[in-house]
Design a protein that fits this description.
Number of strands: 15
Distance between the termini: 43 Å
Number of domains: 2
CATH superfamily of the largest domain: Response regulator
Structural class: alpha/beta
CATH class of the largest domain: Alpha Beta
Number of helices: 8
Strand order of the largest sheet: 2-1-3-4-5
Strand content: 25-35%
Helix content: 25-40%
Radius of gyration: 20 Å
Largest sheet: 5 strands, parallel
CATH architecture of the largest domain: 3-Layer(aba) Sandwich
Shape: elongated
């Protein structure tokens, strides 16, 4: 696994390197000293795993994750245990409190290896994850679990499970990154996950009405032929 260390403290990064030296299956591909540096390094190096400090100057680890198009696996490392609950709420792979114990590092890496193998074997869409930060709440969401993206000004509301948080990204920005075979732009306001469409019915306007769980989404008459071609209707 290719790992990136993101921590503003040089000694903390050195300690991570020392602990990881006992795990030759982990290749450290780089280091970053703050959130902005972390974003650049992730884009350039594309690591499988990041060790991420929560509190850093210029932006927290959570803020950094929220700015990513696609999040790698994450192990949070911090001296502040009040962040533990929030870290687990986002389904982070693990949370290591400083000073990090070798046995905790080994257990975290073992879980990471299992998840990494499953991710590598899965289709690209299923393997991708979004990190969403709405106020104080955070989520890691598998893209396959998102049934609907809905435009809300400069934000997009994301529907998955019983949740519908807002993310600071426009629908057009999201559309550029989504697989058009899996995600269909039904209208100016909506992108639907084709796997979550439960029912399709024609409407009086010449378009289509889609049912996704407990929601109805209209496909305009102009876009209806695209949907029919995509689904062989």
């Amino acid at each position: 696994m290719r790992a990136l260390l993101i921590d503003d403290e040089r000694l903390a990064r050195a300690e991570l390197r020392r602990l990881l030296a006992a795990h030759p299956e982990v290749e450290i591909v780089g280091e970053a000293v703050n959130a902005a540096d972390g974003l650049q390094q992730i884009a350039a190096l594309k690591p499988d795993l990041i060790f991420l400090d929560v509190q850093m100057p210029g932006g927290s680890g959570f803020d950094m994750l929220a700015a990513l198009e696609d999040a790698p696996e994450v192990i949070f490392t911090t001296a502040f245990d009040q962040y533990a609950l929030q870290a687990f709420e986002v389904n982070a792979l693990d949370y290591l409190q400083k000073p990090i114990q070798a046995v905790r590092m080994a257990a975290a890496l073992q879980r990471c290896a299992v998840r990494h193998r499953a991710t590598t074997a899965a289709p690209s869409t299923a393997a991708r994850k979004l990190f969403i930060k709405d106020g104080e709440r955070c989520w890691f969401v598998a893209l396959q679990d998102v049934r609907l993206f809905e435009s809300d000004g400069n934000y997009t509301r994301v529907y998955f499970g019983d949740q519908q948080p807002l993310m600071l990204r426009s629908l057009n920005q999201l559309e550029e990154k989504l697989d058009p075979q899996s995600f269909f732009r039904a209208s100016r306001r909506h992108i639907v996950n084709m796997e979550h469409v439960e029912r399709v019915a024609p409407n009086d306007a010449g378009g289509l009405d889609l049912t996704l769980r407990d929601q109805a989404v209209e496909v305009s008459r102009r876009r209806a032929p695209q949907f029919k071609a995509l689904t062989s209707l």
